[in-house]
Amino acid sequence: MAITFGMPSLGHTMEKGKVIEWLKHEGDPIAKGEPLVVIETDKVITEVESPADGVVLRIVVPSEEERPIGALLAVLGAQGEQVSEVELQQMLGPVAVQVPTTPAPVVAPAPMAVPRADAAARDGGERLKISPIARKLADELGLDASTIQGTGPGGRITKDDVLRVAEAVKTAAPAAAPVTPAPAAPVPVVTASAPARGRLGVSSTIPLRGMRGRVAERMFQSWNTIPRVTEVMQVDMSATVAFREAMLGQWEQQYGLRISLNDMITKAVAMALRRQPRLNATLVDQEVRLHDSVNVGIAVNLDEGLIVPVIFNTDQKDLGQIAREGRDLAEKARAGRLQLDDISDGTFTITNLGTTGIELFTPIINPPQVAILGVGMVQRRPIVVGDALAIRPAVYLSLVFDHRAVDGVPAANFLQELKRLLEKPQDYALS
């Protein structure tokens, strides 16, 4: 019996997905749980597994096309089973083009769109094993993916393999250039006139598609539907900075990596959320849900847009675990290897622009979460200490919250608790 395989729902914010690559061809056998297709959502590119054992009878949607959740992507079934056009139209539903009831001229069928996985193969006809990110990078660099030797599992071509070949080509290019170029034919000189006054030339465009498009949609939705309020607090970071400098050597021995100020701020935020849980919440179906788990998302900037991988149970982890997980997640995000579990179920988000020199900013809430914290640059500023003026390292913390779910006082209480922790690092950094 044929089994329909539709666009899966891979997150509560997902409305549609894009088929990046089919990992099986029509007629291929497949086992339940075996990767079938690579799907791009608003947050991540991930492999989706087959729901049953069988054979891929029909691939309905080719690579590089988008479909809404539930739309038919493929049909699975038993070996030797056939799916007629009439049956396929019935599976597609009423929105599909109906089979004509009147005779029509006989037309040779158009070639079926070949899934992208078929487009590149080894000389021996073997299907090319390549990650979606590596394929995209190879296309952008103009490299023939079928000539690249993969070093990943099962000979799969990875992003690093593509970069290695690109660097080799770049290095070899000067040596391949002729020593004395042949004289070229005269080229007519065309003088380009400057754009007319008031008209702008366009050097390049950035299409709002894929992840960039999803980020644009979600930010527009957040900005236009959430009544947000921003509270800003300056925090004296001299105690945290001094404590970090004193502990760096011990921490490097203990954890095997260097603890950053951002790691310490993340730990302090998690502790403050545990003590002030009104902001450790999501707003779903007109209901504010307070969560037992403190799952802090750390915004990571990619060329395609922002993505927020999550450190789960952050308040229960020491600085070494937070630092290691944060670096691993950021590396996976930039390599395009994040899984859906890495970006799901966050309860609060931190976005830090301090390394870019930004002092103060108001980030946009990542729904359905009810709050987000913007962290600016830690730098020396004049601060009143008692009755005297001192120059100390300080940071501006910008808390943006959804006023439907949180009022001003609970939000201020959270910032006060975070300030107390950052000014007494021994209260959080050693737990």
Concise account of the structure shown:
By secondary structure, the protein is an alpha+beta fold. It has 10 helices and 19 strands.
Keywords:
10 helices; Dihydrolipoamide Transferase; 431 residues; OB fold (Dihydrolipoamide Acetyltransferase, E2P); alpha+beta
Describe this structure in words.
Strands 9, 12, 15, 16, 17, 18 and 19 form a seven-stranded mixed β-sheet that branches. Strands 1-8-6-3 form a four-stranded antiparallel β-sheet, with no helix packed on it. A four-stranded antiparallel β-sheet has the order 5-4-2-7. The protein is globular and about 85 Å long. By secondary structure, the protein is an alpha+beta fold. It has helices at 85-92, 116-119, 132-141, 159-176, 210-225, 238-255, 261-275, 319-335, 340-343, 408-423, and strands at 3-6, 16-22, 29-30, 35-40, 45-49, 54-59, 66-68, 72-77, 228-236, 281-284, 287-290, 296-298, 300-302, 305-307, 310-311, 348-352, 371-375, 379-385, 388-402. 29% of the residues lie in helices and 23% in strands. It folds into three domains: 1-94 and 115-119, OB fold (Dihydrolipoamide Acetyltransferase, E2P), CATH 2.40.50; 121-173, Dihydrolipoamide Transferase (Irregular); 224-427, Chloramphenicol Acetyltransferase.
Spatial shape: globular
Which series of helices and strands comes N to C?
A: EEEEEEEEHHHHHEHHEEEEEEHHEEEEH
Which structural class fits the helix and strand makeup? alpha+beta
Number of helices: 10
Question: Care to count the β-strands?
Answer: 19
Number of domains: 3
Task: Report the C-alpha radius of gyration, rounded.
Answer: 27 Å
Using the coordinates shown, work out and report the CATH topology of the largest domain: Chloramphenicol Acetyltransferase
